[in-house]
Amino acid sequence: MKNVNRVVGRDGVERLYFRKAGFPSIPLTSPRPETGQEAGSALAQEVARILGAATAKPAPSTLRAALRAYELESADFKTLAESTKKSYRGLMKELDEDLGDLHLSAFKPAYLLELRNEWAKRGHRVPSLLLGVMRNALLPHIIAGKHFEGGAPFAMIPGVRRPHDMGEPHVIWPEAVVHLVIEAAVRQGKIGLARGVAIGRYAGARRGDIVKLTKAARVTGRFTWRSGKRNVLVNMPEDPQLKAVLDGTPKAPDSLVLAYNLSGVAYTESGFHQELVKIVAELFKAEKIDSPDYTAHGLRHTFGVEGALAGWTDAVGMAMMGHSSPASFATYRRQADRIRMSDGAAAMVLKLRERTSNEDLQNICKTGVVKQAKARRRTLTK
């Protein structure tokens, strides 16, 4: 069918995509009709709606035109991971619907500040995401200076601080919880899930990487892969704990991936997440763990915070976590600094208590000796 591309994934599921030169690839939700019944089908109508929405050329020098050029022409957008592209398209759709008709000259610092304050009502990260995508789309115009004679307007807009009463974004996995979840997965025959948990905890892999890693990731005592987010090479010695789990669990004979589902094929990201959430909920309900909020990304977060506590620099953390910039490791270092300061503060209090307790004991002893001496003197003078 014209403008429809059929793709069969590793899981055997057929997926349909809208494909046309000069247009982004868009997942289709309608089922594929029988041969000869394409005309007038739900799929044909969905394709027509996409074409109809895309035919109207946006007015020049509007945000809509800048967003469209960013998606179709920018090298920065084309090199993003597919998961990031999907996220960005959702943000661009919102910007297009709300602000697409506005001329670029409208986006002065004062107006951007108003937008930031309004978006902040939905959460402290929303302004950063929307303003970030808008800045990327407007960058060519900012450099040209045609509509932004005053310089870069986004540099004048500070980010929204994280609320002081907000907890950490990802719960740290205690080692006991890691082992309980792995053991529960093995008992239920979900060997690939147990392996995936170990990979997330002891290699810091993202969920999207966990489900794609093949046996080739293990080479001569090292664990290596390319991070799917930015296609950054990660190459580290294989952690002994990870090795113990991978060597101690049976391998699916027909599966090339390390983390596989009950059918012996690769998990999807959502499938891995759902299985992990299910086991965590069961253990929490049975009162074997303290929280139902342990997540796949929390495994990676635990790996990063552990490294920061061990003394990793930002550059080392970048290499170990598969980041493209050392600045990305700051999140883990910030939480590690809090833990380190809390541990240090607690140790200082214990030392103070021990010291003051010894001093009190010495004073009590000295007081007792003085009293005994006075009593002896009184006895001798009688």
The shape, in one word, is extended
Discrete helix count: 14
Largest sheet: 3 strands, antiparallel
Text of the CATH class of the largest domain:
Mainly Alpha
SSE arrangement, N to C: EEEHHHHHHHHHEEEHHHHH
- The structural domain count equals 3
Q: What's the CATH H-level homologous superfamily of the largest domain? A: Intergrase catalytic core
Strand segment tally: 6
Rounded average pLDDT: 85
The neighbouring-strand order within the major sheet is 1-2-3
Residue ranges: pLDDT <50 for 5 or more in a row? none
Based on the coordinates given, report the CATH architecture of the largest domain.
Orthogonal Bundle
Structural class: mainly alpha
Task: Please provide a written account of the structure.
The chain has 382 residues and is mainly α. The protein folds into 3 domains: 1-56; 59-163, DNA polymerase, domain 1, CATH 1.10.150; 175-333, hpI Integrase, Chain A (Orthogonal Bundle). Helices cover 54% and strands 7% of the residues. The chain has 14 helices and 6 strands. It has helices at residues 42-55, 63-73, 75-78, 82-99, 109-119, 126-144, 175-187, 191-203, 207-210, 240-248, 269-285, 296-310, 314-321, 330-381; strands spanning 4-8, 14-18, 26-28, 218-219, 222-227, 232-237. The strands form 2 sheets. It has a 3-stranded antiparallel sheet, covered by helices on one side. A 3-stranded antiparallel sheet has the order 4-5-6. A hairpin with a 4-residue loop joins β5 (222-227) and β6. It starts with a strand and ends with a helix. The mean pLDDT is 85.
